[in-house]
Write a structure and sequence with these properties.
By secondary structure, the chain is mostly helical. The chain is built from 31 helices and no strands. The protein is globular and about 85 Å long.
Amino acid sequence: MTEKKRFIKPAIITVVGVVMAISAFIPGINAPFFNDDNVYIIGNKNFETPVTEVWKFLFERTNNYEYLPIRDIIYRIEFEMFEDNPIGYRIVNFVLYALCCFGVYITARMILKIITAKVAGTDHNRIEWISSLKDLLSGVLMLFSLFYFLKGIIDEVVIKKHLYVSWILFLLALFSKSTVLPMIVIIFIIAIVRFGIDKLSIKKSFSLTQPYLIIGFVFLFIYMHTGSDSKILAAPFLFGSFQSIVNNFHIPVIILGYLVRIALLPIDLRLIYDVMDFGMPFITAIVLGAICIVSVVAAFRFMNKRYALTAFGIIWFTVFTLPYLQIIPFNSWSFASERYLFLSIYGLALIITSIIFLLNKRFGIAAAFIIIVVYLSSTFHYSLMWRNNETLIENNARFSPNHTKSQMMYVESVLMPNKRYKEAIEIASKTGTTEIDRERFVRYVKVFQAYDSDQWEEIDKHCEWLEGMTGMHSSTGFLNILGIHYENKGDFIKAIEYYYYAMDATYTNEDHQGYAERIKILRYPYEHKINELEMLLKIDPNSINVIGALANLQMQIFMLDEAQTNYAKILKLDPENKIAYYNLGLLFRKKGEDAQSVIYLQQAVDLGFVNAMVLNNLAIGYKNIEDLEKAEEMFLKAIELDENYWFASFNLAKLYALNKNNQKAVEYFEKSKMIVVEQGLSSENIDSYLTVIYKVQDAKVN
């Protein structure tokens, strides 16, 4: 058979496979933009950058969540071409998917040559497509990087020019999405299989892998240090990761089990899975996860045996799920999703291929046909859901009835906009991990219902309750409604606070800009006072009183960076200024940096600034960093100093409720309620907590 004829058959099979796979996504080609699309593309103010200057994205983030410059450059070019037409973006993704399929084909053939000579070659592997440019783009670049690595080592002599190309493609893949990092492990395993496991060969394999390790470290350094905001650097990253593994070692096993189930049985696909929902799916996930881990251990044993391809497929599948197993915590609305399998599914394809090769030819062809039909049908069915955002969210809520995020999306995005308040309240009353969460969600819906009917007393009542239960890490919707409420009441300080937190929590750049503009308008009445204080500073630049007054005003209206600079000036002039330390502690809490907040608050206490309010705030700081023993100690000290400071008793009660010490919680809620009533204040918030605790205990309030 000529070389040309040897090429024609696999080429035809590849083309047919790509066309079949793409056809499954046709129903959703004109689907509207959804969720993250609005962050990255629609309303992204950074896309005002001229298309001729997109290279600037290499040095700055286009959003606060990810630094993926290659993807963002392509988005900017697409935006220039298609603006808000989703079809254009999906056509580009189809092209990238086709390239992914081709990359699968050429790498699979090369892997078969290296992994085993005992198993016949394969012509085609199918990778499931996910409507995400970063997945497709990083997948294409990674597969071709892997191909050039394989090409560089397949002969007796290592061809360095191929390796150079592989390194460049790998770096570009990382800048498209960091989840391609596990390729380093795959490269090392392939090198070990290629060159052997004696001491000299392992050394050679490591030297071939070393450049990829260096590129990975360089990427992580750039990722964490580029742009105006890095969520990773805001926390003790490595320690936090280690602590997460120790405390939640079961979570990776559960997530892995869910991903195995989704890959093997792709039915009822959805955006969000009830990973922590106990029941048969939970037990199945643990079993599948444990089996997968045992299989990986066994796979290393069989890498040089008859089952090498199957073993390699198991290793590939598991290694490429690692970025999603919460081993290093990442911010996601879902612990498990079918979109996480974009690269892992390659390993499953290798496993299925190796099993099919063991079958009789006719049985093998029949099995392959059935598998293709099942997977394409599943993809086609899921694509139908994507045609309408409301349908997608509603189906997701139906499939994940116990997942808080899925139910909140359904209520906020479908039921409330359509004024289906009765259904919304019914779902809200069942959504959340605690009774307090459910009560808060119900009142949130009732506020919108009250706005529709101009019931201002109801709005005031619910918003007053929500204020006590809604903090900076709450949903954007909760924060936004409180901002609107206090703006309408003329309390601009509180409105600025809630808009500021909503701005930080929002998903879209357009909304982020909107909140920034709103805050700027609300700050306007305070600009005169700021200008006045700045004029006084020009007369006496070292006046601690004036600097302090300016910093306090800036902190009050959430000009936090400016306030921080001024408090730092005070400490430079007076290194033991306990008030400045205390205010910096409060400032860092407003910024969401609780570890820093505790350091400054504790310093203020150590310098002698001790009263019930200070100790209460320090206790809250310790609670936020999960040092609950220290928090309890500080709350008790605050109560000891001032028994009439009801906030300390109230917060201590909440701490006990958090620890499920209901008896102590009731004691301190009752104590705080007594003080509040004596002071002529409303006790509704405290009563709500008491009602919840008694409801949990299935007892009556005495």
